[in-house]
Structure formats: structure tokens, C-alpha cells
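Exercise 7. Given the encoded structure of a 231-residue chain, write a plausible sequence.
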């Protein structure tokens, strides 16, 4: 079983909610459609917060390219998908804005990684060879104890790795690769009428009225400004 299959097994085994090196891909292209940009079930206040977050940025272009490089090392592309298709780097940047406590360890970790590469190889991390990059990451990728007791560089890499895996395997690309179908509703029309007739039984109309109308299962719910469900 290769590394990617191991990761998928772990995620599926733990019902993957939130939360491992090969080649560095090209810097991520601009992702025009952000999969975490919810278009449904948001009241006016929530939608305004979402818009503000999605219009914000955190990384410099150099940092963005470094994060893209690291993400491709952590989860190399394969025939199922890649970091760019899944929008992983924009997702990580979104998380930096949405949860400010991530900002200091992330930016500090990126700076420390470049400083370490310069000391070791006389060049930035992204300019180093794949072998050199791996040799640096191997020193921080496998903590022996709990992450919180580890040096800051280990804590940084643990944070980054969790964000990469979360961003990928909660994207449309990643969910398809997992073949996860838990969010796919199953339609059951109840006991066939001929069986009910044969048994001399019938559904209680009052109980049936409380059930979901399967003919409307694809309709998007709508709330008013006070958060009351309209449909």
C-alpha cells in the first residue's frame, strides 16, 4: 500500500473530518471557484462574513508558492487529482484569515524553513532539489511524542500537513477519490402499496405529512432574515 492509499485508509477509518513526501509541483494557478464558498443556507449576516473572508488575503506570492510546493510534497498528484484542482492553497489561505491563531505559526514556520534551507544548501527551500527538500522535512515530519511538546518547526509541519489533507479530502476532487458517499441521500418510497394492501395496513396520514416530500428533495432550503425556515 503506497502513502496515498494509507492516508485514504486512515481518513475513511476515522470518518475523516479534520484531520506523507514525493515531488514539488508547479505553483498553484488561480482558483476561480472556491469550493468552501457556500451559496446556500446562509443568512444575510453569515453571507456578509463569508464575503469579507473570501475577499481577504494572507500570503505573499512567495509564501503562496512555497505552500503550494510543500502541499505537493505532502500529497503528490496522481491520476485522481492534485493540489491545484482541489484548491488546497486557497483553502489554507482562507483558514489563515478565518482563524487568526494559525497565522503566526504558519508564517513563522515558512520563514524558518527558508532559513534552514539557506543554512543547509545556500538557497531558498523552493529552489532546493527534491532530495534536499525531503531531507529537511524528514526532520520535522515524524514527532515521537505529542505535537504540542515538540519544537515549533514540528508543530508547524503538523499544522500544515493537517490543513493540506483537510483541504484536499474535503474538496470535490478528494471526496471523489475517497469514493465517499455518506452525504448522498437515499430515496425510499416506503412499503409498496400492494404489500400494504395484502397485509391490510396503511400509513397514518398525519405521520406521512411529517416526512420529507421526495419530489422536493432537490429544492434548496430558504430562510428569512430572522433565520426562520421558509421552505
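Solution.
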Amino acid at each position: 500500500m503506497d502513502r496515498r492509499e494509507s492516508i485514504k485508509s486512515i481518513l475513511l477509518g476515522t470518518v475523516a473530518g479534520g484531520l506523507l513526501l514525493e515531488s514539488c509541483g508547479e505553483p498553484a494557478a488561480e482558483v476561480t471557484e472556491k469550493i468552501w464558498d457556500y451559496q446556500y443556507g446562509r443568512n444575510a449576516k453569515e453571507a456578509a462574513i463569508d464575503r469579507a473572508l473570501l475577499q481577504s488575503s494572507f500570503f505573499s506570492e512567495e509564501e503562496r508558492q512555497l505552500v503550494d510546493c510543500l502541499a505537493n510534497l505532502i500529497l503528490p498528484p496522481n491520476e485522481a487529482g492534485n493540489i491545484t484542482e482541489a484548491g488546497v492553497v486557497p483553502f489554507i489561505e482562507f483558514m489563515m484569515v478565518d482563524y487568526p491563531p494559525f497565522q503566526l505559526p504558519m508564517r513563522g514556520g515558512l520563514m524558518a524553513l527558508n532559513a534552514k534551507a539557506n543554512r543547509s544548501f545556500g538557497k531558498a527551500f523552493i529552489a532546493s532539489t527534491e532530495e534536499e527538500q525531503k531531507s529537511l522535512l524528514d526532520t520535522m515530519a515524524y514527532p515521537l511524542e505529542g505535537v504540542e511538546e515538540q519544537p515549533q518547526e514540528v508543530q508547524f509541519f503538523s499544522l500544515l500537513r493537517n490543513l493540506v489533507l483537510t483541504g484536499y479530502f474535503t474538496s470535490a476532487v478528494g471526496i471523489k477519490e475517497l469514493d465517499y458517499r455518506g452525504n448522498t441521500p437515499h430515496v425510499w418510497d416506503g412499503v409498496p402499496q400492494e404489500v400494504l394492501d395484502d397485509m391490510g395496513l396503511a400509513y397514518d396520514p398525519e405521520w406521512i405529512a411529517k416526512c420529507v416530500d421526495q419530489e422536493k428533495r432537490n429544492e434548496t432550503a430558504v430562510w428569512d432574515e430572522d433565520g426562520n425556515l421558509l421552505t
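Remark. Residues 12-33 have pLDDT under 50 and may be disordered. Students should compare their own answers with the one above.
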